[in-house]
């Protein structure tokens, strides 16, 4: 399946034909349904199929202006157009969750690069603010993880606008490390939580999202220094939101230690 997705990604990068791009969208939907059919998460599959195919039809019909750019961003689930992803992730686990957050986005990212719109940078910046504010209202570990992944993907796409080669490298690095992390998570909403996971998503130095954000910030610094300072302040907000994990982890084994 990974080889097939890489083939579709290469195909979408080699051409700018709308029909071929729409065919890639359809094949990625089929791949996702094929991978999740044994999990019996039918509500997630139906939601995903309806959302993706409706957006695919809009992509074909609204092939003018910047509408296609917004449609692709919504298909990927980029903030602030990520409102639909929680209806999918609530019923998928382990490798299927990892696939949804990484490989499923690869062909869409390469198509997004080809319909570049510089004004989308401010939309991505607004999406980061929405993510940080939404983190304060979430209490489910899994939803926090999905939102953190969405926020990191926003950073990667902002880096694409600045430097394509750096961002492709970062995306590959991000995919490999997320494959190593997410496959350890089980169906429970709490028993996978450990100190390693918390330190990774708290943007600790040399962790997964740390390099993604540092390289993206270094590219944005060439473009707008004021925006970089605002983003650094927002990264501090993200650390505050994940303090909920720290508090829970601190008291998680209290009773067992007492005994």
Automatic annotation (TrEMBL):
Keywords: Membrane, Mitochondrion, Transmembrane, Transmembrane helix. It comes from the Eukaryota. The chain crosses the membrane at residues 18-35, 55-76, 82-101, 108-135, 155-181, 193-214, 226-247. The keyword Transmembrane applies. This is NADH dehydrogenase subunit 2. It comes from Pristionchus pacificus. The gene is ND2.
């Amino acid at each position: 399946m990974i080889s097939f997705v890489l083939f579709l990604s290469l195909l979408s990068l080699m051409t700018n034909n709308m029909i071929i791009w729409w065919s890639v969208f359809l094949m990625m939907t089929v791949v996702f349904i094929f991978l999740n059919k044994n999990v019996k998460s039918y509500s997630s599959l139906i939601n995903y199929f309806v959302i993706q195919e409706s957006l695919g039809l809009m992509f074909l019909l609204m092939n003018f202006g910047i509408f296609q750019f917004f449609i692709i961003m919504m298909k990927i689930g980029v903030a602030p157009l990520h409102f639909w992803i929680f209806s999918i992730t609530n019923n998928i686990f382990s490798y299927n969750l990892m696939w949804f957050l990484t490989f499923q986005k690869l062909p869409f990212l390469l198509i997004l690069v080809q319909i570049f719109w510089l004004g989308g940078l401010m939309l991505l910046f607004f999406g980061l603010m929405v993510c940080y504010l939404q983190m304060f209202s979430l209490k489910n570990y899994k939803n926090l993880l999905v939102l953190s992944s969405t926020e990191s993907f926003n950073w990667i796409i902002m880096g694409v606008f600045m430097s394509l080669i750096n961002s492709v490298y970062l995306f590959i690095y991000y995919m490999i490390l997320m494959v190593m992390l997410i496959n350890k998570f089980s169906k429970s909403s709490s028993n996978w939580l450990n100190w390693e996971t918390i330190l990774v998503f708290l943007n600790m130095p040399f962790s997964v999202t740390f390099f993604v954000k540092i390289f993206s910030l270094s590219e944005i610094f060439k473009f707008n220094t004021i925006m970089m300072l605002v983003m650094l302040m927002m990264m501090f907000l993200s650390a505050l939101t994940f303090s909920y994990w720290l508090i829970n982890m601190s008291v998680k084994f209290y009773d067992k230690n007492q005994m």
